Amino acid sequence: MTLSIIAAINRKRGIGYQNKLLYWLPNDLKRFKALTTGHTILMGRHTFESLPKGALPNRRNVVLSRQDLHFEGAECFHTLEEALKSCKEEEEVFVIGGAMLYTEALPLSDRLYLTEVEDDQVPADTFFPEIDPTVWQEKSRECHSTDEKHLYSYSFVDYERIQK
């Protein structure tokens, strides 16, 4: 199994504010959909509750919660370990948030698909963990300028774990 993390982060590694995304970037949302469709997505309870229409279509939605809860259109597990054991060996699994799950999954992950937003002014109360350059190697970077649909410059940056 390949464990991947996908997130949009700003210069300060901010990812959210008051359980909402910091940025509305249509191209980032398209990339997210293209990468995750047909795959398992893992998320914490707060991330699931922040989805405007509930479970994301055409994906296996897995929610992690310490509580015994039911989420329409999703499977629930108490631990990341339990959730990962339920995944197929040959699949790519995406961790989509939030901050606590990113922190827990980062040491186990193989790939990072990040949208790095050129901003440090928008307030954030939730942050992505530090990316250690001795552990992660940048594999590709696609830079985009502002336009009528994107108020901030941003880059799609893919990282792979350095094999030691």
UniProtKB/TrEMBL annotation:
Q: Which UniProt keywords apply?
A: NADP, One-carbon metabolism, Oxidoreductase
Q: Where are the transmembrane segments?
A: none
Chain segments annotated as coiled-coil in the UniProt record? none
- Tell me the route in metabolism or biology where this protein functions: Cofactor biosynthesis; tetrahydrofolate biosynthesis; 5,6,7,8-tetrahydrofolate from 7,8-dihydrofolate: step 1/1
Q: Which domain of life is it from?
A: Bacteria
Q: Where is the DHFR domain?
A: 2-161
Q: Describe the reaction catalysed, as an equation.
A: (6S)-5,6,7,8-tetrahydrofolate + NADP(+) = 7,8-dihydrofolate + NADPH + H(+)
Identify the CDD domains for this entry. Answer: DHFR
Would the keyword NADP be found if you checked this record's keyword annotation?
A: yes
Its EC number is: 1.5.1.3
Q: Which InterPro entries match?
A: DHFR, DHFR-like_dom_sf, DHFR_dom
Q: What class of enzyme is it?
A: oxidoreductase
List, alphabetically, the PROSITE patterns matched. Answer: DHFR_2
Query: What family name appears in the similarity comment?
Result: Belongs to the dihydrofolate reductase family.
Q: According to its UniProt entry, what is the function of this protein?
A: Key enzyme in folate metabolism. Catalyzes an essential reaction for de novo glycine and purine synthesis, and for DNA precursor synthesis.
User: This protein is called what?
Assistant: Dihydrofolate reductase
User: What organism does the UniProt record list as the source?
Assistant: Bacteroides mediterraneensis
